[in-house]
Amino acid sequence: MFKKTTFAAALLAATVLSGAASAKTFVYCSEGSPEGFDPGLYTAGTTFDAAAHTVYNRLLEFKKGTTETEPGLAESYTISDDGLEYTFKLRPGVKYQTTEFFTPSRDFNADDVVFSFERQLKADNPWNKYVTGASWEYAAGMGFPEVIKSVEKVDDLTVKITLTRKEAPFLANIAMPFASIVSKEYADKLQADGKMNQMNQMPLGTGPFAFVAYQQDAIIRYKANPDYWGGKQKIDDLVFAITPDASVRYQKLKAGECHLMPFPNAADVAAMKADTNLKVMEQEGLNVAYLAYNTTQAPFDKAEVRKALNQAINKQAIVDAVFQGAATPATNPIPPTMWSYNKAVEDDKYDPEASKKALEAAGVSGLKMKVWAMPVSRPYMLNARRAAELIQSDFAKVGVEVEIVSYEWAEYLDKSKAKDRDGAVMLGWTGDNGDPDNFLDTLLGCDAVGGNNRAQWCNKEFDDLVTKAKETNDVAERTKLYEEAQVVFKKDAPWATIDHSLSVVPMRKNVEGFVQSPLGDFAFDGVDITE
């Protein structure tokens, strides 16, 4: 749980939308509350937007609107001939944010990079378990503790990372939110004061916006970092107005109470496009929604049962009802816009009669199960409750009784990781780096079981293929391996793949400089509000 900050809630509410007379305040109607403010501990886009894309930077960043990396806190890098050593030259003169809760005494340096990685990699690091019940889920799921042999300071502005094996997506991986660089000096002060949890409650980094205050489930406030190495932002104050209901977000947008919102109801998009006070951005989403069976629990431990259930789901009906057609039914665990997508894989055909017969043949009768429905809108699933109700109806037709369950978002994400979780959990993914590995290994690899791998599925044939693909830089060879992995996935069916959606971002007409991300990020550096 978050502790309330010392900032008065009344003052916070009074100043959110007004701001100082001469200051520009940008209000983002966000869809949910962050799990915390230390991006290394989490995997949800809601949390990344509230922390990684505001407060922090990484060694490399993704160029706006692309999946290409560019210099961030590292100005340049070199790679050894054997592909195992990466040496980063750090950007000089980078300042940490000065806040009411901490004043830094030095610039960013190599000590911060070493600390930021080692706290995630080393179990004996005092910061490795500083948040009770949390874990370095992303680093673990990608096998970083095994892949990274060492992170060494060469000098104040040089860091060398040595790998145990070749890792083709490594540079893209360290541009992701979980690899954000935190201040070792701030961490040392918190540890000395016995306030280590504050790292996850009151973040401090090198990014474009400095954290000011958080009123849980209501508002997050930031101010422009005047010392930002990329230049001070045009907006002075940034506010996340937490608004879980998409209809309420839309009303606030129309009323001018916020400048931009994520994940609108599909039924509202036409009206948004017709409103002369608004503008709407659209692009194909690099995403997938899925229903993950717990493959360690009977009867979902049998592939024939999972495939039979998949045949009972009318995915087109979900696309029509939830997305008004602004999505396509999903066949593979990666989107069709991603390289190495296997077009030859055939989807499980919607066929209730065949599903019923297959369940009977597998000895399954009178099955009662839970289907978990997310409490928040995500780009890949705008209304999980409605989708779950449609699945509930579909399963009833084949004799399977479904109970729909849900929890508050942070609790949902945490509980759904449990290895003994019952039923099937609805979730999805928007790619974090544009590499197939970010879907196939991150969500389905054996290292991710108990974390991002909500199906708890460890298939050696699949795992060997995606691991081998990471160990070569030959794109043609990687493509072949990933295509084979998709065949194994479809045969074993740890998920019911549901949809790939169109990403839609409505905003006020006077918003300038916002760049829609193929990775689903909502970042506000470079954004301005015109008169």
TrEMBL record:
<dbReference type="InterPro" id="IPR000914">
    <property type="entry name" value="SBP_5_dom"/>
</dbReference>
<protein>
    <submittedName>
        <fullName>Dipeptide transport system substrate-binding protein</fullName>
    </submittedName>
</protein>
<dbReference type="InterPro" id="IPR039424">
    <property type="entry name" value="SBP_5"/>
</dbReference>
<dbReference type="GO" id="GO:1904680">
    <property type="term" value="F:peptide transmembrane transporter activity"/>
</dbReference>
<dbReference type="GO" id="GO:0030288">
    <property type="term" value="C:outer membrane-bounded periplasmic space"/>
</dbReference>
<dbReference type="GO" id="GO:0042938">
    <property type="term" value="P:dipeptide transport"/>
</dbReference>
<feature type="signal peptide">
    <location>
        <begin position="1"/>
        <end position="23"/>
    </location>
</feature>
<feature type="domain" description="Solute-binding protein family 5">
    <location>
        <begin position="69"/>
        <end position="448"/>
    </location>
</feature>
<dbReference type="GO" id="GO:0043190">
    <property type="term" value="C:ATP-binding cassette (ABC) transporter complex"/>
</dbReference>
<dbReference type="Pfam" id="PF00496">
    <property type="entry name" value="SBP_bac_5"/>
</dbReference>
<keyword id="KW-0732">Signal</keyword>
<comment type="similarity">
    <text>Belongs to the bacterial solute-binding protein 5 family.</text>
</comment>
<dbReference type="InterPro" id="IPR030678">
    <property type="entry name" value="Peptide/Ni-bd"/>
</dbReference>
